[in-house]
Write a structure and sequence with these properties.
By secondary structure, this protein is an alpha+beta fold. It has eight helices and 20 strands.
Length: 463
């Protein structure tokens, strides 16, 4: 499918909201309290913002856990940052103090080879961390710490890559292929993400405690969090890569992203809304749109989106997949969403509609154990990330209590990923997952064309 003209896409998708068409289970379940009110669920809208996710048939583990400042990892991250700066400084000093141009050039190449080798080692490290988590040899907290460490090292290696590029530009009669440097940057991108970055901020005390959703397959991981008024998500699927082939062009990559994310593509901003950087065995497509930002990586061999990060302001998120319970003068509304998606909890007085501030707990229905989420605040609203299995939300205000049991909605998986078209969110899968809740190369800027126009591609620039 070619990137659709704006007017056509807008006819297909009028406005992006969360949710997907599918039946909801309103059957009676064992409530956490006697007399609990069960969900009265409206039919969700078919207009969705698609996400890269793990099909339920390939899901191994899923969990939602709270994380907070942690002295041990905090010291580790500080040491990683300091060590990276020291090593980069030492490398540059050796290069700058080389006795002759030949030695200087060889030192630059040695350093670049070292970064490339370390990138290969990070691939193995990330795969091992996911496998250990799946085998229950790592907790979700430990998994997040290890992924954050890998993220921190990858960022340090990229800073060294940039420093080597700069010192190369100051070296007479010597150059390194910009394609090689850009391919290395794309490879290091594989190990970084905004959720991992926020996890570091939480553990080092730079950000407040937050609840993180973790979902894994044999070789993939999906992370999400609600933080600083935004829903932040990242996903990586190693099974969607084919490193032996390089057949997808950057124009085709843009078409692939347009097909997979029709709502996002149709609402991209007018100026510099879309940027494509092609290097190595992937294309990075970044889209700034009216409701957030998407960064999608398309594999040049498989032609599939294998990595994604999304950031969306909470104020832009809406859904018609609501569940509502009323009791004891309290009206509890849950704007249901897909596993790991942004879940909104709203508490109001049932008669006046005034917002109510009260503590909220959530627990998996199967376990009957609840965890304190926080309180709804003066606006009666609390945001979190959705579990992957049926859950119960409980609110107690004085002598009043309301309990609501609901299901996650089907995941709006990528439109053009053939194996991801299933919308089954059942927790029963082949690998029996566990669910818990606990405390640069060529770069093209593609402007949005006039209605009915195909996107245009700008002149390439080297980053």
């Amino acid at each position: 499918m070619k990137a659709l003209p704006l007017v056509v896409v807008m006819l297909l998708v009028a406005s992006p909201v969360l949710g997907a068409v599918g039946p909801t289970d309103g059957s009676s379940r064992s409530p956490a309290l006697d007399g609990a009110t069960h969900a009265q669920v409206e039919s969700p809208s078919n207009e969705t913002i698609h996400v890269l996710d793990i099909p339920s048939s390939e899901l191994v583990r899923s969990t939602v856990e709270a994380h907070h400042v942690d002295l041990g990892p905090s010291l580790d991250f500080s040491a990683l940052r300091a060590g990276g700066r020291i090593q980069t400084g030492a490398s540059l000093e050796r290069i700058e103090s080389a006795s002759d141009d030949s030695t200087r050039q060889q030192l630059i190449l040695d350093e670049l080879n070292g970064i490339e080798q370390r990138a290969i080692a990070l691939q193995s490290a990330q795969r091992s961390v996911i496998e250990r988590f799946n085998d229950d040899n790592l907790t979700a907290r430990e998994l997040l710490i290890e992924l954050a460490r890998i993220d921190a090292e990858a960022r340090a290696l990229n800073e060294r890559r940039v420093a080597l590029r700069d010192v190369t530009s100051r070296t007479s009669d010597f150059s390194i292929s910009s394609g090689r440097l850009a391919a290395l940057e794309r490879e290091l991108d594989t190990f970084t993400g905004p959720v991992r970055t926020h996890a570091v901020a939480v553990m080092t005390g730079e950000a407040d405690a937050a609840r993180f959703s973790v979902r894994t397959s044999e070789t993939g991981v999906v992370l999400s969090v609600v933080a600083d008024g935004e829903y932040v998500r990242e996903a990586y699927r190693a099974d969607l890569r084919d490193r032996d082939q390089r057949t997808v062009t950057y124009e085709e990559a843009l078409d692939i992203v347009a097909e997979n994310y029709p709502t996002i593509y149709s609402s991209r901003t007018a100026q510099n809304g879309t940027n494509v950087i092609s290097a190595g065995d992937s294309h990075r497509v970044r889209i700034n749109y009216n409701y957030g930002q998407l960064t999608a990586y398309v594999d040049t061999g498989s032609g599939r989106v294998f990595k994604e990060s999304q950031t969306r302001p909470l104020r832009s998120i809406s859904t018609t997949a609501t569940a509502t319970g009323v009791r004891d003068g309290l009206a509890l509304t849950v704007d249901r969403t897909y596993p790991g998606g942004p879940l909104r909890i709203q508490l109001n007085e049932s008669e006046t509609g005034d917002p109510v501030d009260a503590n909220v707990t959530i627990g998996l229905e199967a376990s009957q154990e609840s965890t304190l989420l926080g309180h709804t605040g003066s606006d009666g609203t609390l945001w979190t990330v959705s579990p992957s299995a049926p859950y119960t939300v409980t609110v107690i205000k004085g002598n009043s209590a309301v309990v609501l049991t609901a299901d996650p909605t089907p995941t709006p998986t990528l439109a053009a990923n053939p194996t991801d078209t299933e919308n089954d969110t059942s927790p029963t899968v082949t690998s029996t997952p566990t669910e818990s809740i606990e405390s640069p190369g060529p770069s093209r800027t593609v402007p949005q064309g006039a209605p009915g126009d195909s996107p245009t591609v700008g002149s390439p620039t080297v980053g």
